[in-house]
Amino acid sequence: MGHFEMQKLKVLITVELVDYIPHSILSKTIIKKTTGDVSAVSFDSGEILPEKKSPFDIFIQVIEGKAEIFIDGKSKKLNSGEAIIIPAHLSSSIKANVRFKMISTTIKSGYEGVPLGP
Fold first, then answer.
1. With 0-12 CB in 10 A as exposed, 13-18 as middle and 19+ as buried, what is 10?
2. Which of 3, 94, 96, 115 is close enough to 49 for a disulfide, judged by CB 3.0 to 4.6 Å?
3. What is the pLDDT of residues 21-51, one digit of tens each?
4. pTM check: above 0.70
């Protein structure tokens, strides 16, 4: 997992932000702030991001290939150029039936009055 922020004021080509690594999921941080973060993520075919719950909304945009995202046990298939918002507090996992790349944006503001516990 990359833990750095991309250079500002530089034109970025989103599909080139992260490479594929065989049998791996690779993540590179584009922006990391206390109010949220943006990452580029690549999945090799067959890789699965295990089920988890986030206390925040997560915006997922597929920038290359096809992804299968499970939200509260329901499958959503996304193609390149498509996006979905995973609502806060719902379980989700991501599966790569074929390799793909995505941009993941987590928004941490707007939950100041919401308890973050189970």
1. exposed
2. 94
3. 999 999 999 999 889 999 999 999 999 999 9
4. yes
